[in-house]
Amino acid sequence: MNTWKKTAALTAALAMTTTLGACGRGGDAGGEKDVKATLVISTLNNPFFVSVVDGAKEAAQDSGVDLDVQNANNSDQTALNATTTALTKKPSVLIIDPVGSESGGTMTEAANKADVPVVAFDRAPDSGELASFIGYDAVQAGKEAAKSLAESIGEKGKVVEIQGILGTNVAQDRSKGFNEGIKAYPDIEVVAQQAADFDRGKALDVMTNVLQGNSDIDGVYAANDEMALGVVAALKARNLAGQVKVVGNDGIGDALKAIEAGTMYSTHAESPFVLGKEVLGISLKVADGEKVEKNTVLHPDAAPPPCCFASTTTHRSTRSTVRRTSMTPSSPVTAPVADAAADTAAIRAAVGLGGTDNTALRAFLEGLPAVDPVGVEARAAQLATRSIKKDTKRALIDLAISMVDLTTLEGADTPGKVRNLCRKAVQPDREVAGTPSTAAVCVYPDMVAVAAEAVAGTGVKVASVATAFPAGRSSLEVKLADTRLAVEAGADEIDMVIDRGAFLAGDYSTVFGQVEAVKAACGDARLKVILETGELATYDHVRRASWLALLAGGDFIKTSTGKIAPAATLPVTHVMLQAVRDLFDLTGVQRAVKPAGGIRTTKDAIAYLVAVHEVAGPQWLDPHWFRFGASGVVNDLLLQRRTQTQGHYSGPRYVSVD
Fold first, then answer.
1. Which end of the chain has a smaller Cβ tally under 10 Å, C or N?
2. Is 199 assigned a catalytic role?
3. 0.85 exceeded by the pTM?
4. For this structure, is 495 an active site residue?
């Protein structure tokens, strides 16, 4: 008897010892049952399954179903433990997305013995009695991917197949469909087939190994978009992204952005949100004793991705890719690289982080190369002397204005002051046409609602400091409550402060855990992690704190609160830019940087933009990826802009104070 079968007996025994009475849905005895459903999901480290759960939760809320979601974290044993616990509570229905088909069978058999109906989706268990199975047509998805890949390489060449979790039906069916489809193209050779378990980090490693023996490949099919993005990261490391065509499955947001960027060719769009809603709807019918189809096959053309691409298979058009190499920025756009949805577990695996306990974090952070202080200071000073003239200077002034987080963080802040700040953020110079808005306004949590109302519909973001800003000296519970208060009031971005005392004491796991927890509390809001570099004392500490914040899930790393000196400096910002650049080179995931405090003149701002271009790269010259926390610089930028456009200098009285 295998491990899963042995555990099944215990699971069923535990379930049968506990019986919960059912009351009427709405409270009437003998009426509709009060439906309680447990969903055991294989992972929530994959955006596809996060969206599935979102769809299920929405449907549950609409239907009055009490839905309990359990994350198996891609562990068969965790999934089985969650099932054991759930069955003791006698749910109306058990919904499973098995990690593996065998363990899924064990889960199903345990529920059968406990007389709890089971609905499975995406991956089918290999044993037990299901009330229903729901999934997309995986064979057809594989065939569509084969057709798209063949189209991308002119129907000839060498390709690689990156497979999912071997032994799961969805991996087998997608592989079957792909191989059946690719046979229609006799001039295409499949030179390698490797499994990466539907995981971005594993796909990066697998593809890196494949490239060592197959440097002349033309295309790659990955059985899901997470693996496709791992493949893209491996190709980027060899400067092959865009040259080698990559096709995925699922239509997740990160993949659609990669297609727009030109690093992926196509994805077969399946809507996980719709899948989640369909699964919950069928499960409700099962719980109510209604007859349902044993197998429900969803078709992608009935569930287009929310970004509204016209065809089922989404691919990039044949327009040329323009690589910016000069310092003249184009109009700011939201750069097409993953943010909060990126798989932090895959990032950690890609950079070689062995765990998140203090021992593993210490080994990684203290193993980073030491910063050469003389070298970084000399490099910063040299770049700051670069002369920028005429049209380029005008363009960089506009870019700098569009990167500012206009801020008021005073005890005397009032709603009126915040509204005035918001008006200036939206229209910094009312007398000169074409002046760009700033990126955001930044306020305390209790002023977020005022700011959100004032900038609604303008494109200006609302940022809020949180986590006991500026000292950060409070409990994690208070920090999380502070964060949730801001998010619920409408904050688009959260600026948190790290526990510098814990960091300097070498307690990296505490800092890591707090950043991770605050990131989770942010929901859809982006997280800026303030390092307070003036208190970190050395460039090595700045480098370690930068990496710690990035690996814990920070979307930005930020120098300072602006409340102590020194605040932002060019050498410190160089070190932080190196961190996000190196993360991008290793993983293909882009993160943002925000220097704050001490940037007062147009000359200062342009020196920082030169550093961004030279240290990180031109793709960071965008308000999405670089910000200034320097309200004081705005007026000087506006005066310099007037000089550039009007041909004469204006005095300070021509711009507003706030």
1. N
2. no
3. no
4. yes
